[in-house]
Amino acid sequence: MVMTDTHPRRSALRRLLVVAVSLASAGAGLTVSGILSAEGSSFPSAVPEAKCGPGARPETDVQGRVPQRDYDSGRVKRGYQCNTRLVAHHGGTGGFKTLRYTDRRGHTCAYYDSTRTFPLDSLFQVRSGFGVIVLDMSDPARPRTTATLKTPAMLSPHESLLVEPRRGLLAGVLGNATTNVGILEIYDIRDDCRQPKLLSATPSAVLGHESGWSPDGKTYWAASSVGQTLVAIDVSSPRSPRQVFRQDGVNFHGLRFSPDGRTMYASNISNDISDGTFPGEGLRVIDVSEVQAREADPSIRVLSDLTWREGSIPQVAQPFRRAGRSYVLQVDEFANFGPTSFADAAVGAARIIDVTDPRRPRVISNLRLQVHQPASRRAAFNDPGASSPVGGYAAHYCSAPYQQNPRIVGCSMIASGLRLFDIRDLTHPKEIGYFNRPVDSAAPLKAGANALSQPAWDVKGRSVWYTDGNSGFYVVKLTNGIGQLLAR
C-alpha cells in the first residue's frame, strides 16, 4: 500500500503518454490493462452455485455460461432464471444505471439511461427512445414512461448518472467510453419524480465519464478516465454549481464515499505503466476532508492503494457497514486485454473489501462465477458475445439494497445477466439466484445478454430492477424465500 500526497500535478508528458497508449490499445475507448496469463495464476474460487427452487429455468452449463448449443437448439429464447421471476419488461435498450427514487408526494420512479455508447446504439434506440427514460413505477408490473430527458448530458451520461436521495436531485455529465465535454446537468425530482425539472447545465465538470455524490448531497464529483481529471463541484445551490477542486493526471472510475463524506473510495484505473501494463489498478482510498469542509485551496491525500492479482478494470466500490465495521463492494468491469490472447485475459469480477482502517484495506472474499475462471473462460470464449472486449462473461456493476447491514447484493454480470448473492457471511458469499435474458440476434452488437447497469432495489416489493443493453428494463421478483433477505 502507498501513502502519498496527490496535490501536485503529474507531468503533462506522462499524462500524454498514458492517454496515447490507452487510445491506441483500446479501440473501443477503454484504457488498456495489463494481461495476466491464466496459466499458473492463482485465482480465487467461484462462489457456490445457487440451489434453484420451483419455477426455475436453470442454466445448462457451468455457472454463468450460455453456450452456443442453447442458441442452436432455441433453448436461449426461454431465458434463464433461478429463484426469480419476471414481473415487467420495458423498452429494448439500456445503459449503465438503473435508479429508483420516491418523491415527497409518494410517487416512485425509475430512471435508466438508454445508451451504452452514443451514437453507436442509435439504430437500436430509434424504437425504444433516446436519452434517460423516466418511468412511473406506481404499479411495478406496468412501468409507464412519463418523460424522456434528451438534453445533451442525458443523451449520453455514460456512467455518471446518479440520484441524490436526500435532496431529490438527478445529475449526470456528458460523457462517453473515453471522455467528453463535461457538461453537468442537474434535475429536480423531489416534488414530482415523474417530470424532472432541469435546474442547471454548466461546463463545471470539465470532462466526463464517471461520478459520485457526497453523502450530504452538496458535492458532485466527476471523474474522467482518458481525460485524466478529477473535479469536485459545489452544488449547495443546484442552479449555480461551482467548481471547488480539480486534480489532473489521475485515472479514476467510480467514486464513492464514507458516511461523513471525508473519505473517498476511488476505483483507480491507474497511470502506472512502468512494466507496459497498468499494475496499479485497484482501490484508492483518499482523504477528501478539506474539500468536504470547503477549505480554501484544498488538497487531497492518498491514504492507501490496494490491488488484486486477478483484477481487470476497476469500476466502482459501493460502501456498506456491518457490525460497526466498514466495507466496500468493489466490482471490476470487462476483462484485462493487451498484446496477448484475449481468451486468456483475467476477469476481475467482484469482491468485498474491509476498509475499517482506511490505511490498511484488505480483500476478505470474492464474488466470482465459474465462467469467470480461466479454464471456463477459454472454453466459453466463442459463445455469442463472449469474445467482446467490452462485454462477454465479466462483471460491470454491483449494488446492495441499503448501506446498513445488507444481507444480499446484486450484480449485473453482462453475458451472465443479473446475479444475486447471499452475503450474510461476508467471508463466504454464495450465489442464491439469477435472471438472464440473452438476445438471439445476428447483429454483433446485440448478441447474447448485455447486463451492464447498477441494479436498483424495491425492498418492499421484494424485487430488483436492472437493464440489459440488448433488451431493456426489467423488474425481477425474488422468489422461493430469497426475498426475505431484503428485510431490514
TrEMBL record:
Domain of life: Bacteria
Gene3D superfamilies, A to Z: YVTN repeat-like/Quinoprotein amine dehydrogenase
InterPro entries per record: WD40/YVTN_repeat-like_dom_sf
Region feature (Disordered): 51-74
Biased composition (Basic and acidic residues): 58-74
Full protein name: WD40-like Beta Propeller Repeat
Organism: Nocardioides szechwanensis
Lineage summary: Bacteria, Bacillati, Actinomycetota, Actinomycetes, Propionibacteriales
